[in-house]
Design goal:
Number of helices: 12
Low-confidence stretches: none
Mean pLDDT: 90
Strand content: 5-15%
Strand order of the largest sheet: 1-4-5-6-7-8-9-10
């Protein structure tokens, strides 16, 4: 008698294929991939609007960075960088019209919204490029907070996780290789993986969690870039207190248990001790060298404190030494092209670099 076939459902947190579904992800999952050069471990943050024509708009507070329309200018910019070794980008959608913003961030997963348009464009134009999609609501909500609010202005965690999961699934369906939720809601990693699984996307989508994201003062230039400052209050009730290592460890361990394939520490440099802690958890660690870190280094170099290229390379080496597997940094174009002097003259420079 033939045995009856056994039925077993693999728990979502035990589904591993998405973690290494792209060649670069497979490299990042190897702790001792000594053949990888520094640029193979960098992710370039790009800010995009839903416009399909026009020129980039310079971000004055973030040297070297612009907001790009989802069109030929962005493709030209990235093609130059890909030819010089660019391997990965993370997409931040920035609606060009505040009228699209509402209480639940409806435009975040609109098919004509900036993030989905950009994901599709990048997958078409750059098949080998690893496309990471930041997932948050702050750029798309009229209140500027990262989730759904109660009537009293506090966060509704369950509704926020549901909405974040829907957005993440839409980005994966559009073609993002990696989903990177930055909202800091409790339980959103498990919710996202469940949604990806129910939509048949978990096997080909990796989840990179902003697990230890601190309520830092170093995000100012980013909020200008993404037009995402909260209209009231702040984010200290859901981002981590800067002085708490214990909460950071709890958040990292929680997200690992929920199935995060990569965990992130943000900011990177001032929290290198947390990067080291995260490296002990058995997951690749991403460190985000945030906008304030970048702006400070360039400002000090502009004033003659040190050589801009040397300090950038030293700052990244320090994060690698602390245990970062990959680094998100705005300095990727300068590192690939060698055009570090552009950073020093950015306030007077052109929008196109």
């Amino acid at each position: 008698m033939d045995p009856a076939p056994a039925s077993y459902s693999v728990p979502g947190s035990a589904r591993l294929h998405g973690a290494y579904s792209h060649p670069l992800l497979r490299d990042w999952q190897c702790e001792h991939a000594v053949d990888l050069c520094l640029t193979d471990r960098l992710i370039y943050p790009i800010f995009v609007t839903e416009q399909t024509e026009g020129e980039p708009v310079r971000i004055s507070g973030l040297p070297g960075q612009s907001r790009w329309p989802c069109g030929s200018a962005l493709v030209e910019h990235l093609r130059v960088l890909c030819n010089k070794g660019l391997r990965a980008v993370i997409v931040f959608g920035v609606p060009s019209d505040d009228e699209t913003k509402d209480a639940v961030g409806t435009y975040a997963d609109h098919t004509e919204g900036p993030t989905i348009l950009c994901i599709k464009l990048l997958r078409k134009e750059f098949p080998a490029l690893l496309v990471v999609a930041d997932v948050c609501l702050c750029e798309y909500t009229d209140h500027g907070h990262c989730g759904i609010l109660e009537e009293d202005g506090s966060l509704h965690n369950a509704k926020s996780c549901e909405r974040i999961s829907a957005v993440a699934t839409a980005y994966a369906a559009a073609g993002a290789h990696v989903i990177a939720p930055s909202d800091m809601m409790d339980g959103r990693i498990g919710a996202i993986r469940a949604s990806l699984e129910s939509n048949g996307l978990l096997e080909k989508t990796s989840v990179m969690s902003y697990a230890a994201k601190f309520a830092s003062c170093l995000y100012g230039p980013f909020r200008e870039a993404a037009n995402s400052a909260p209209s009231f209050g702040d984010r200290r009730c859901y981002q981590l207190p800067p002085g708490s290592r214990a909460l950071a460890l709890r958040a990292l361990e929680r997200d690992v248990k929920e199935g995060a394939d990569i965990v992130m520490v943000k900011p990177g440099g001032p929290y290198a001790d947390i990067v080291r802690d995260a490296a002990a958890l058995g997951r690749p660690v991403a460190a985000y060298q945030v906008s304030g870190e970048a702006a400070m280094l360039v400002a000090a170099a502009r004033d003659g404190a040190f050589d801009v290229e040397k300090v950038i390379r030293e700052s990244l080496l320090s994060l690698r030494r602390a245990g970062a597997s990959v680094i998100l940094t705005y300095f990727v174009p300068a590192l690939l092209t060698g055009e570090f002097e552009v950073l020093l003259s950015w306030k007077e420079g052109p929008a196109r670099t």
